[in-house]
Write a structure and sequence with these properties.
By secondary structure, this protein is an alpha+beta fold. It contains 8 helices and 4 strands, in the order βαβαββαααααα. The chain folds into 2 domains: about 80 residues, Glutaredoxin (3-Layer(aba) Sandwich); about 140 residues, Up-down Bundle (Glutathione S-transferase Yfyf (Class Pi), Chain A, domain 2), CATH 1.20.1050. A 4-stranded mixed beta sheet has the order 2-1-3-4, with helices on one face. Helix 1 packs parallel to helix 3, helix 4 runs parallel beside helix 6 and helix 6 packs parallel to helix 8. The chain is globular, with a radius of gyration of 18 Å. The relative contact order is 0.13. The chain binds glutathione. Glutathione binds next to helix 3. Keywords: Transferase.
Length: about 230
């Protein structure tokens, strides 16, 4: 069987969640890194696979699927040897799903709301209300951490999904250890238990941070030159 193809970028948290999930269940992927600045996700061919033009997108056989949360549930349900990452128990699944929605609707959405205008739209500043939204998101995760992991006492898709955005957020906007000690300890724990955390999260988040600083500086110079 040909490996599942993953269209993604090195920096995207959503794509990294798919890479980590595949690694954890021993699934080989044919990873194709795309360049969104060259609009490779807006081609007719890509839009046929994913009309939302987002990465990650996978193609399993001849079936294209998109949205990281949908993809990681699909991969574990279809290919994992056991259900540890997404237990069949419906209450546990509902709790994991709630955290996947937190990742999608709060963590990733607020991260994207801040970074995208800088990466792609020439924005030269970080609006305070958006920064406040990031620190409020940290408080929400702090409050959600009732044990070592987001759901129950073992690593699940909730952690795999949330840690990708959290790692990048924490690199760019460091978590205050005084205000969110559980979150800091949680991220350190995940560094130990998620396979290749350093490569998938730390290194890639640093790459995003470098790009962020470069673009912010470039945008500030352009905006100053216009005044
Ligand atoms: N909810 C989606 C979000 C994916 C997403 O927005 N990815 C960004 C890259 S970080 C993207 O593809 N942006 C291009 C676009 O929206 O046109 C997921 O989890 O897969």
């Amino acid at each position: 069987m040909a490996p599942i193809v993953l269209y993604t970028t090195r920096r995207t948290p959503a794509g990294r969640a798919v890479e980590i999930t595949a690694k954890m269940i021993g699934l080989e992927l044919d990873v194709k890194f795309m360049d969104l600045t060259k609009k490779e996700h807006m081609t007719e061919e890509f839009l046929k696979m994913n009309p939302l033009h987002t990465v990650p997108t996978i193609v399993d056989g001849d079936v294209p699927l998109y949205d990281s949360h949908a993809i990681i549930i699909y991969l574990v349900s279809k290919y994992a040897k056991d259900d540890k990452l997404y237990p069949k128990d419906l209450v546990t699944q509902a709790r994991i799903n709630a955290m996947l929605h937190l990742e999608s609707g709060v963590l990733f959405a607020r991260l994207r709301g801040l970074l995208e205008p800088i990466f792609y739209k020439g924005c030269a500043e970080l609006p305070q209300d958006k920064m406040d939204g990031i620190y409020n998101a940290y408080d929400l995760v702090e409050g959600s951490l009732q044990s070592d992991y987001l759901v129950g006492n073992s690593l699940s898709l909730a952690d795999i999904s949330c840690c990708t955005s959290l790692c990048l957020l924490n690199t760019v906007f460091p978590v205050d250890a005084g205000k969110c000690p559980k979150l800091i300890a949680y991220l350190k724990r995940l560094e130990q238990v998620v396979p290749d955390y350093h490569e998938f999260n730390t290194v890639r988040a640093e790459e995003a941070y470098t790009f962020f600083k470069l673009k912010l500086e470039e945008n500030k110079k352009k905006s100053a030159a216009l005044q």
